[in-house]
Amino acid sequence: MKSLKTQLIEALQPLSDRDYDLIEQALDFAEQAHQNQIRKTGEPFINHPLRVALLLAQMKLGINAVMAGLLHDVVEDTNITIKTIERNFNNEVAFLVQSLTKINTIKYQQEGKGEEKELDTDKENFRNMILAMAKDLRVILIKLADRLDNMKSLWVLEPTKQKIKALESLEIFAPLAYRLGLTDIGAQLEDLSFPYVYPEEYKLTRKIVGRKREELESYLKSIVPLVEKKLKENNLTPLKIKYRAKHLYSIWRKLQKEDMDIKRVYDLVAMRIIMPKTEDCYAVLGIIHQMWKPVPGRFKDYIALPKPNGYQSLHTTVFSEHGRIVEIQIRTKEMDEEAEWGIASHWMYHETKQTKIYQKKKQFIPPKSFYWIKQLQEWQKTFYNSNQFLESLKIDFFKDRIFVLTPKGDIIDLPEGATPIDFAYQVHTEIGNQASGAKVNDKLVPLNYHLKSGDVVEIIVQKGKLPSASWLGFVKMIETKKKIEEILRRKKLL
Ligand code: MN
């Protein structure tokens, strides 16, 4: 087995001599600082920051993030101060380390005051982390890498701690990873938490799945030559054909929707065809549909209508050889990288550009599909209480998303179960306040209607009208509730 350091250096290639020296310096510093510290697993402490740094290097986040990964626990867990970090490393590294430390210091001061207090400060920490994330996205990416590595050794903790950490990962960190488009990290966090949070369901799911994923994968492999031959006849050459096995936690969620019938989970393993250009994807889709009949209602064009987190791909489900139902996903290499690494992939391609903007504005400018990060920064200011903030975050930002359209075709991204009133307040507070009716796809609907992805929503306003207190009973978003309550209170109606 290659040492972690060797793996790290390999993942960082190409690496200039200057950058190599910087990495060595950060690693030596961290090694010295954590000298004699042993993790609960019995291994030397330094392995943990090394693995975190390795993951960041794989995400192609750049040299400063990797250095910060190596140093992320130094200030928190040793007696080295942030001043010393500032003296030894550049501003960016120091800022990242400090942001990651702040998140935890409050908790340390409070420790020993009982579990409940610790949970509260965790919530406050989380809010700080979200704030730091809006300023520099790498803060949250490092935190996710840190959490993922810690989750892999969850077994060393005592059962109550295991459950707390697992629940936090499942309810906060995994959804956050998904919203940032880090699909693989989100899936790993879910599967690592699953057995601790829902032990019975976990066992049941494993039993139901059995070896079905392996079987399906070998079946898919057996039909690939048929696909390749047909594509070749049409002068199409895929860059790659891969298989993606659905992870256990998401199978369990799907099973609940499908009456626990595994035969109805068609995407247990999906075939993924990677093409050079977008137009090739549509050409491949046409050929697949000529070879095998599509299952009605299962085709999704996320290229023309990307998911709110920026995900792009064509998905189709077909009756393949002998009527066997399989899911096929078609996308370009860029889409594939973005699907796995999400926002980090934007960093990969634009690192130099980002670094320049960063140096000028001292802020990370997210790509368009991630504007919600900026929204988050503004929006969190309206919460004074970190409990409410966290609840709102879970519902307003992390719940499964739908996207609906304004009559002009602008996309508004909402949590599942959102109503026309939630939509109206997202468009503009005044539209929300004065809403008197709603049309979805040109038909009048009640204001408590549950919107679906792709709906075109038009709000009918009545000038000078005020919101009704009854709306509080059905609106989905905490943010909507707050806005309604605010105006009703102002008008002394509540
Ligand atoms: Mn750590």
Topology, number of strands: 10
CATH fold-level label of the largest domain: Hypothetical protein af1432
Major sheet attributes: 5 strands, mixed
Ions and ligands: manganese (II) ion
Main CATH class of the largest domain: Mainly Alpha
CA-based shape:
globular
| Level-2 CATH architecture of the largest domain | Orthogonal Bundle
Give the helix proportion (percent range): 55-70%
Taking pLDDT < 50 over at least 5 consecutive residues as the criterion, the unreliable ranges are 103-118
Tell me the Rg in angstroms. 25 Å
- Summed up, the helix count is 22
According to CATH, the homologous superfamily of the largest domain is Hypothetical protein af1432
Helices and strands in order:
Blueprint: H1 4-11, H2 17-33, H3 47-58, H4 63-71, H5 74-77, H6 82-88, H7 91-110, H8 115-135, H9 138-151, H10 159-179, H11 183-197, H12 199-209, H13 212-233, E1 240-245, H14 248-257, E2 269-275, H15 278-291, E3 300-301, E4 314-319, E5 325-332, H16 333-341, H17 343-361, H18 371-380, H19 386-397, E6 401-405, E7 411-415, H20 420-427, H21 429-433, E8 435-440, E9 443-445, E10 457-461, H22 478-490
Parallel strand pairs: 2-5
Antiparallel strand pairs: 1-2, 3-4, 4-5, 6-7, 8-9, 8-10
This protein binds manganese (II) ion.
Brief overview:
The protein has helices at residues 4-11, 17-33, 47-58, 63-71, 74-77, 82-88, 91-110, 115-135, 138-151, 159-179, 183-197, 199-209, 212-233, 248-257, 278-291, 333-341, 343-361, 371-380, 386-397, 420-427, 429-433, 478-490, and strands at 240-245, 269-275, 300-301, 314-319, 325-332, 401-405, 411-415, 435-440, 443-445, 457-461. The chain has 494 residues and is α+β, with helices and mostly antiparallel strands.
